[in-house]
User: Fold Enoyl-CoA hydratase/isomerase family protein from Microbacterium rhizosphaerae.
Amino acid sequence: MSDSPILFSVEDGLARLTLNRPTRLNAFNAELAHAWAEVTVAATSRDDVGAIVLDAAGPAFCAGGDVLDMAQTMGSGSQIEELAGVINRGIRALTESSIPVVAAAHGTTAGGGLGILMCSDYAIIGADSRIGSLYANIGLTPDLSVSAQLAHAVGQRRALQLVLQDRLLTAQEALDWGLVAEVVGADGAASTAADIAAAVKARAEEVARFWLSNAYAAYGQAKRLVRSQPARSFEEQLAEEARSIGAAFETADAKARVAAFAAASSRRPQRPKTEETP
Assistant:
């Protein structure tokens, strides 16, 4: 495997971003931060990308910031702030794009890794996964969009439970809270951590391929509408929905799909009316 801190490939419309610091549980140092910002912007700027898979090498998805590296190379809070700003560029690239993102988050996700997980629009984890905040354990505060996205994902009270305790959610708790969409390997079919990680990645690719084989541009615009809603008033959101569906109706893909639906409906036999049928 490449020594690059993040791997990037595009094939048949699918972009894959793989965090690649497995020996550090994919924790962010300066090198990974800059590579992350560059790769996410590149992936979301390409016309040939219709879906993105975000996954990771090694035994965990992302342990947040590399605390050891911080202690050895960061001499001031301003340096930490600057590095967080670099990572935030990548977070914004993914969340503000009109390309749906699925995360394959096997193993542990903690600290800023939670923010990276929430960059995805559809998150899949393993039955053995654990997810938490843990910032205060080392005297730090949430970053990398955790305070911006967590309450929207699970509600304010649950968000506070997570950031005010050193708690790691189980996979089932993360699913019950609505933090993730699916848990893979709960049936015991995948017996080892490696098996579960492989199953999580396979399911994430299946989800991405589903988007690509269908109206992926419409899925992308639906993602954009939901993600960008907090920036608008209710009236503004209704207007943006109306504008968006009008623009979608003019696309060749929508015209073909609407025509096919109408043709299929016209061939469908009508239910005969009875006296009881209004």
